[in-house]
Structures are given as structure tokens and as C-alpha cells.
């Protein structure tokens, strides 16, 4: 049997990234370049590869015209390295630099993005994948990262204005009209019959939720938000991926040589589209039968919460438009092309959403008083109740939590996450050990919702 081992890629521990102006090819037709904000001039930013348990040092040099920070989404790191302006560090001023140093305890698929003026900085292109490699990766022929992005372009291919539109902020947030894969309009993905691909999906959208189906294939989920789970096929064959969420898949390419198979996103009812296609080479299959090798990823050193002694907390998510008939439930929304640039009306500073009746707005600043204080090293169960008519991918900095239940039903497959998606009226229970001291953000990762109040701070002391 051929047992491929992916050699450890060129994981180095020293990086420098430079946020600043850049150009991207977001429109078809070869030509038109779009002005973006980018790490190292490119969207997405470079894939940063680190090694589990090995110290990393990343210099960020700000060449934007405004303050920025970098948040290492999903990495359990010291609070001072978390990248929240005001709360965990002073913002990085134009022309200045900041050195992030941390040792990633967990292997997995993570990502990085600014935590300052997030609507524009993320919405204009500042995002990149961060892969922490296992000491011994699972056998696969290729390790592939798909950074998925969503843009709202005007008819000239420029990024449309209107960030922070209040109407949108009270509904689904700024969903765009152009989806990219690794920074360009996705063409075919060339594959060979019989190969096994480890596919890392990262949704860097401001607001777009995706539900991917792989025609003719049976992807197996092996990690959620970087954290290994029991390998399983997604329910109904749909890979649900809300903003900030990641999925690691093992895909055995069992299609026929020479054929094409669509990858379809059908999250929004009536707006299904082909994201990309697997295009098979004409070559004979690499192997006859799927690789007979384990898919289970090695465990990360996550502390197991003690549910007996755990303290319980309730967070009620509130606010937004009461409902919009055709825009709730199954994820329906207006036609993608029908979303205009909006009328302006910045949401910053004015709350539309709240958690337990309180609203923190913006991206992070000094004197955000914690909603709850957790004793260090104790176990906690947090129940989040979505009282709104909208979907919310709720994200906690600094921790991965075990997802215990959804609407009273235990969540299968041993899933841990840092971002959990709540459908309208959903109740979700998560649990974790508060082993990481500091002030940690908890917010919706639909950026319009976050900046308009769906955010709070947990303090661990
Ligand atoms: Cu991707 Cu405050 O997080
Ligand atoms: Cu985060
Ligand atoms: Cu939300």
C-alpha cells in the first residue's frame, strides 16, 4: 500500500507581515484590478505555517493609513498577544510595528485578521490562513488550503462603499456579491483520481454563511475550528461554514478521470451557485481503492471541563430586526446582485444588538468592563440563547470550547470550536476550562453585528 506522508512543510517560526494597500484580481475577464488592503500586497495574506509547541515570532509592520492590530483567531495564546486594540495592546499606528510572540499549543487550521476598524479592514481584504502543523500529520497526498472570501464590488469591480450600513447591520450584515477562493474567482481545482486530499476550509467573509456540497464526493470532517473531532460525514452532505469558521476535511478523489464535479454553495435559498469544480486529469487513478489509512488527527492538549463542578452562565443574544419574512429561517436573503452599496449611516457607537441587555460596540477599546468574571482554572458551561431572528457565529477569544448541546440535543462527534453558529432561536451549550488569564472578547463574527453591539468581554483572573 502506498502510504503518503506529507513532509513537514517549510514551517518556520519567524515571519514578517505588512498590512498595506494592494491590488487583487477579483473580477473575471483577466484584467481589472481592484484596490484592496492586504497583507504583503496580496489577498489573502500569506499562509503562515507554524509548528505545534514551537515558539513563533511574527513582526507586523503597519503600512496602512490607519491604526491596526492582528488577531490570531483560534490560537490559545497569552492575552497580551491577542490583538485587541485598547484591551490587550495599544493599536499599531501607521508606520509602526508590533512583534507578536507566542507558542501555539494546538495543531490545526486557524486564521489571522485585524481587530481594528474590522468592517473595512477585513472587508477590504486583510485576512490570511494560519496553519499549525502536527508533529505527525495524517497520511494524505496533498494538503490544500481554501481561503474563502466574500466581496461587495460595484459594476467597475471596485469595493463598494457603505460599510456599516445600519439597516444591514440590523439584519444579515454586509453580504457581498463576489466569492473568491484564495483571492481569485475560483477556476477549476485540478485533481487526480485516487488521491487523498486534506482540505482546509477557512471562511473569512464579513457576513456570508456558506453551505458547500461536493458533487459526487464524500468529504469527511476531521477537525472543526482547528480542533480534531471524530471523523464524520457532514449532515446531509452539507458543509456549513459561517464567518470565521474552519473545517478540515479528508477527501478521497473517487471521481472518474477526465470528468468535472461541481462544488456548490446552496446556503441561501434560491441563490445556489457553483463555487468551483474538481477537474479530474485524464490519467489513470493514483490508486484503485481509497487509501486505507487513519483519518483521525492526534488530540490537542485541551483541558477537559469538569461538568459536575462547572459554573453555569447564560448569555442571551438580543436585538436586530424582529424578522424579515423572506430573510430568516432557511437562510433566505435578497438577490446577491440586489444588494446596493447602501446609504451609509455608520453603526459604530450605536447599538443595535446586545448580550444580556448590554452592548459593546466597535472593535475593542480600553475600559470594556467584563460582563462576567471567571475564576482561573475552573470549569464553565455557557448557555447561549439566540433570541433574535438572525444567524450568529459566536466566537470566544483565547479558548476552544467543547460544544455540548444544541436545543437540548447532545452534539455528536466530540466537537470543539472557537466559533459556534446559532440559528434563529437556537440555544447552544458550550464548556471550557478558564485556564488562560486575561480579558477575552466574546462576539458575533458577522462583523456588522459585532461592531453594533453583539460583543462582550469575559475576564479570567
Ligand atoms: Cu476572529 Cu474577535 O475575532
Ligand atoms: Cu478570535
Ligand atoms: Cu451575529
Report on this model:
This protein is mainly beta. The protein has three helices and 32 strands. It has helices spanning 118-123, 166-169, 447-451; strands at residues 14-17, 19-24, 34-39, 48-51, 56-61, 71-73, 97-102, 108-113, 128-133, 142-151, 178-181, 188-191, 196-203, 210-214, 220-224, 227-232, 239-241, 246-252, 260-265, 273-280, 311-319, 353-355, 372-374, 379-386, 392-396, 401-406, 409-410, 416-417, 419-422, 427-433, 438-444, 455-460. Strands 21, 22, 24, 26, 27, 28 and 30 form a seven-stranded mixed β-sheet that branches. A six-stranded mixed β-sheet has the order 11-10-13-18-15-16, with no helix packed on it. Strand 15 and strand 16 form a beta hairpin. Residues 71, 73, 395, 397 line the site of one copper (II) ion.
Features:
7-stranded mixed sheet; binds copper (II) ion; 3 helices; mainly beta; 461 residues; globular; 6-stranded mixed sheet; binds CU-O-CU linkage
Name the shape in a single word.
Answer: globular
Residue fraction in strands: 35-45%
Reported for the largest beta sheet, the result is: 7 strands, mixed
Give unreliable regions as ranges.
326-348
Please tell me the overall pLDDT. 91
Ligand catalogue: CU-O-CU linkage, copper (II) ion
| Overall radius of gyration | 21 Å
**Structural class designation:** mainly beta
Q: Count of DSSP helices?
A: 3
Beginning-to-end CA distance, first to last residue: 52 Å
Which percent bin holds the helix content?
A: under 10%
Total beta strands: 32
Amino acid at each position: 500500500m502506498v502510504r503518503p506522508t506529507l513532509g513537514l512543510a517549510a514551517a518556520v517560526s519567524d515571519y514578517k507581515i505588512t498590512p498595506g494597500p494592494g491590488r487583487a484580481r477579483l473580477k473575471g475577464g483577466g484584467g481589472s484590478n481592484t484596490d484592496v488592503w492586504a497583507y504583503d500586497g496580496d489577498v489573502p495574506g500569506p499562509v503562515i505555517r507554524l509548528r505545534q509547541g514551537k515558539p513563533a515570532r511574527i513582526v507586523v509592520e503597519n503600512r496602512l493609513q490607519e491604526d491596526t492590530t492582528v488577531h490570531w483567531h483560534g490560537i490559545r495564546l497569552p492575552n497580551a498577544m491577542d490583538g485587541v486594540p485598547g484591551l490587550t495592546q495599544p493599536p499599531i499606528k501607521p508606520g509602526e510595528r508590533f512583534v507578536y510572540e507566542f507558542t501555539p499549543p494546538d495543531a490545526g487550521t486557524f486564521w489571522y485578521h485585524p481587530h481594528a476598524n474590522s468592517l473595512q479592514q477585513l472587508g477590504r481584504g486583510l485576512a490570511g490562513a494560519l496553519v499549525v502543523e502536527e508533529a505527525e500529520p495524517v497520511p494524505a497526498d496533498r494538503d490544500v488550503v481554501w481561503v474563502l472570501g466574500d466581496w461587495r464590488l460595484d459594476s467597475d469591480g471596485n469595493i463598494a462603499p457603505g460599510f456599516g450600513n445600519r439597516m444591514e447591520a440590523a439584519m444579515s450584515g454586509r453580504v457581498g456579491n463576489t466569492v473568491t477562493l484564495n483571492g481569485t474567482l475560483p477556476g477549476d481545482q485540478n485533481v487526480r483520481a485516487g488521491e487523498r486530499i486534506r482540505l482546509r476550509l477557512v471562511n473569512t467573509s464579513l457576513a456570508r454563511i456558506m453551505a458547500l456540497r461536493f458533487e459526487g464526493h464524500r468529504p469527511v470532517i476531521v477537525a472543526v475550528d482547528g480542533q480534531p473531532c471524530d471523523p464524520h460525514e457532514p449532515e446531509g452532505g452539507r458543509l456549513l461554514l459561517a464567518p470565521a469558521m474552519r473545517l478540515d476535511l479528508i477527501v478521497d478523489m473517487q471521481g472518474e478521470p477526465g470528468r468535472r464535479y461541481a462544488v456548490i454553495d446552496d446556503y441561501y435559498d434560491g441563490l445556489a451557485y457553483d463555487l468551483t469544480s474538481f477537474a479530474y486529469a485524464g490519467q489513470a487513478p493514483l490508486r484503485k481503492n481509497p487509501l486505507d489509512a487513519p483519518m483521525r488527527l492526534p488530540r490537542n492538549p485541551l483541558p477537559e471541563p469538569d461538568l459536575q463542578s462547572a459554573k453555569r452562565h447564560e448569555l442571551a443574544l438580543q436585538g436586530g430586526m424582529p424578522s424579515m419574512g423572506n430573510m430568516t429561517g432557511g437562510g433566505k436573503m435578497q438577490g446577491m446582485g440586489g444588494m446596493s452599496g447602501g446609504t451609509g449611516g455608520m453603526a459604530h457607537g450605536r447599538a443595535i444588538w446586545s448580550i444580556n441587555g448590554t452592548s459593546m460596540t466597535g472593535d475593542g477599546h480600553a475600559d470594556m468592563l467584563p460582563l462576567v468574571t471567571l475564576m482561573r482554572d475552573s470549569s464553565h458551561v455557557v448557555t447561549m440563547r439566540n433570541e433574535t431572528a438572525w444567524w450568529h457565529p459566536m466566537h470566544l477569544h483565547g479558548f476552544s470550547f467543547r460544544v455540548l448541546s444544541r436545543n437540548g440535543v447532545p452534539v455528536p462527534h466530540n466537537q470543539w470550536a472557537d466559533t459556534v453558529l446559532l440559528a434563529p432561536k437556537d440555544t447552544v451549550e458550550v464548556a471550557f476550562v478558564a485556564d488562560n488569564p486575561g480579558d477575552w472578547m466574546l462576539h458575533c463574527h458577522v462583523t456588522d453585528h459585532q461592531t453594533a453591539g453583539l460583543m462582550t468581554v469575559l475576564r479570567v483572573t
